Amino acid sequence: MTVSKGLFVAATALSGVSAFQLPQIHLGASSGNDLTGLPVIDTKALQELISADNLESHAKKFYDIAKLGEDEYNHPTRVIGSKGHEGTLSYVEAELAKLGDFYSVSKQPFPAVSGNVFESRLVIGNEVPSDASPMGLTPATANKQPVFGDLIVVENDGCDESDYPPNVSGNIALIKRGTCPFGTKSANAGKSGALAAIVYNTDKDEVHGTLGAPSPNHVATFGLSGERGKALVQRLVDGEIIDAIAYIDAVVETISTTNIIAQTRDGDPDNCVMLGGHSDSVAEGPGINDDGSGSISVLEVATQLTKFSVNNCVRFAWWAGEEEGLLGSDHYVEVLPKEENKKIRLFMDYDMMASPNFAYQIYNATNDESPVGSEELRNLYIDWYEEQGLNYTFIPFDGRSDYDGFIRGGIPAGGIATGAEGIKTKEEVDQFGGKAGEWYDPCYHQLCDDLSNVNYTAWVVNTKLIAHSVATYALSFDGFPERTDEVSVSSYDEKVKYHGGKLIL
Ligand SMILES: [Zn+2]
Questions:
Q1: What value, to the nearest 5°, has the Cα angle with vertex 209 and ends 205 and 214?
Q2: Would you identify the family this protein belongs to, as annotated (predicted)?
Q3: What is the pLDDT of residues 270-279, one digit of tens each?
C-alpha cells in the first residue's frame, strides 16, 4: 500500500504537465544542436571519463550548499523546503545549463508533506521508556500540550474500527504492529477518540515508522519496542491500570518542492532509458552519501554523455521528497499519461553510491515479482561486476527508494546501492573489506553524513557502472523485453514494508 496516493491527486492537473511533455517537444536531433560530429555512445569510452576528482568537486559544492540550511536548522542540511535543498536544485540546474542544448530540462513542482518533531515525551507509569520514539509525520498532541490517560489495549491488530473498545475514548491506545499501515492504526485511534496512540513492535526491538500521508483523523503516535509493549499488554490483561502521559510538539505541513528532469534531445523519444537519484537529504544532516553521491553520479554521467550521440533517449531525474516517502518519484509516475509511461523502457535507481563501509549491492529485482525487464537490468549489473572481478550481494527490492513508483506503474526497474544502516557480515568483509559488525554507512541519516562519509573507490566503481548502464541502453534495447500492458505487482506489494527509508507497516 502506498502512503501518498490520495493526497496528491488534487495537484496533478496543475503541476504535472511540464516534465512529461518533453518527448513531444523534440522529435529526433533537429533542434539546432549539431550532434553530427559526435561519436556514437560507447560504454568503455563513457566509463573512462568518470573520475574521483569530478565527483569530489561536486561533493564539496553539495556540502557548501548544505550549510545554507544552517540558519534554520542549526546544522547543514538539504532537506526539502530548506535553503540547502533549494541550493541543490539551483546547482543541478546550473550544471545542466552549462551543457548547452544537449538536454531538454524541465522542473516538475509538486506539493510535498513535510513533518518536523520539535519535542516529544512519553511517560508510562513512572517510567520514561528510552525505546519509544515519535512516528514520522505524526501530528502534535492537542494544543501541543501533554495529554493524560490510561493505556487501553486495542484488540487484534487495530486495523478495524471495531478493534477499539469504547474506553479508548479519552485515553491512550496501545496497538500491536502488523497487517495494516501505521497511518491506518493512528487514524482508527483518532476516530475512536484516543488522545494518543502507541504502536508496539511484534519483535522485541524498537520500531521507527512513519504515518505516511496525513489524515485529519491521525493522533499523536509513538512507536515502542516489542519487548516493552508485550510486557505492558500482559500487565493490562492481568487487570492492572497503567496511566501514561504523551506529549509531542510537531508540525506537519505541505510545501512545494520540485523534481528536475533532463532528457536528451537526441535519440528515439519513444524508447527512453530513465535513471535518477534524489536531490534531498533528511533534516538531520547534509546527506553527502545519502543521496549526494547518487545525485552527483547521475549529474556526472549526464555531463560526460554530452560527448556522444545516442540512439535511444536518455532521461535523467533528480527526485525531491524521497526522504519524506518517495514523494517526487511517486508523483512523477502517478501523473504520467499512459502513452508516456510506455515510452520509458526501464528506470534505474541510484541511491547511496559511496557508503564508507560499503558492499556492492544489487537490488534483487526479478521478472516473477516485478515488471518484465527488471531481471535483465539486474543481470546487467551482475555481468559488469563479474567482468571487473568484483564481488556483489543481492539486497531486497522492497520499496525503500524511488524505484517503487515505477514498479507499481508497470515499468521495469532496478538499481545498485552500497548500504545504509544494515550491518556488515564477516563474509562481506572477505568480499569487500571494511569492518564487520558495523553499519555500511555509520552516518546514515545523521549529521556526520558529510564530506568524510564517502568512499571514493566505491563511488568511482559505481559511477562507472551507472555510465555502463546508460551507455548500454542509449545504444540499443536489443534483447531487452518490450513493455507489456500487464501490470501485476501483487507479489511485490506483499513483501513491501517500506515506502522510502521508514517503515510504513
Ligand atoms: Zn536515499
A1: 155
A2: Belongs to the peptidase M28 family. M28A subfamily.
A3: 999 999 999 9
